Amino acid sequence: MGWKTLDDMDLQGKRVLVRVDINVPVLDGAVTDDTRIQRIVPTVRDILAAGGKPILLAHFGRPGGERRQNLSLKQLVPALEAAFGTKVRFGEDCVGYEAEIAAANQGDGEVLLLENTRFHAEETQNSMTLAEGMAKMGDIYCNDAFSAAHRAHSSTEALARLLPSCAGRLMQAELSALEAALGNPQRPVTAVVGGAKVSTKLDLLGNLIEKVDNLIIGGGMANTFLLAKGLDVGKSLAEHAMTDTAAEVMAKADKAGCRIVLPSDVVVAEKFEAHAPHKVVPANKCPADSMILDAGPDSVAAICTIFEQSKTLIWNGPLGAFELEPFDAATNAAALKAAELTQAGKLVSVAGGGDTVAALNASGAAQDFTYISTAGGAFLEWMEGKTLPGVAALAQ
Fold first, then answer.
1. Do residues 285 and 163 touch, judged by C-beta distance below 8 A?
2. Which residue in 30, 93, 172, 266 has a CA-CA distance of 20 to 30 Å to 216?
3. 36 catalytically annotated
4. Which of 74, 197, 259, 311 is catalytic?
5. Does the annotation mark 136 as catalytic?
6. How far is CA 351 from CA 160, 255, 330, 375, in A?
């Protein structure tokens, strides 16, 4: 582990610089989805309860080092006050005189939100000078933004090296879940990897075949693997130039003792649209004028059996064209099976990545998974076996 949590710090009377991800959607100045705000509430409440003063550091959008009124964090103050149930002061900058005055005026039980860190171009350059300016306002640094931990920025990496540092509750939950899934998992471990392209997930596949017992491949990616096995996939989405690479992945998996699972039957249609006329055929019988849009019922049954025999599941990407009914059937059925096994205490299930979260929410299975990561890029890089600068800095 190597990193500390809030429980390891004496927070009484201390100013705690908390890096958060509150990059939420806003329409006409109002927050339309406060999920990310809700996820930092436990950290803020625990710091306040321990007598500390939370000072929030965050980015918002991509201002490119310029002050842009529409990307000011000031517009989030009402939503933050509603979530925290306490007064949120606002500092007009994240560094320098205005930020220091705001920090000096922060009362007990209040939260201070500093202005968008990316209004300074130095933030994304991981400037130590900018980090030193931020560090003046705090006694302790707490990183609660796992979703930004794959970036080496002043507020995520340099700052952690200047102050006693710890992980916030969301970061702690995320790292603990990932450690349970990939670091030191209960075996057998199964991974589901779906999505459109093999080319975007090569690092991921390469890392997983060394670490998991079963690798279930779905979505458009599976078509490229079927092609590599010499099967005709008709008009299906597939990367014809990647078939040699897919063959190499299968050979490496074989050597590593990792079983790769591809669809044995598929749902095909002539058109890529919701409720298009469709039929189930064996994977080696895709008609020339059709495209594969989902895994078939036999494939789903085989996947569910593998889940039953597994202790740990990592999920990234849907099994079919889940955004079109009824081609969400395989993803939904497999997700609900994983959820059922998790609820019964038989499976640790961790999922993440944009499409994955949307697909699991749509299936109604999300709330029963052990952990759903909303961290996108950081989750993927962790699964690829890469070192995340924001996490590594906490362990120093």
1. no
2. 172
3. yes
4. 197
5. no
6. 27, 26, 16, 10
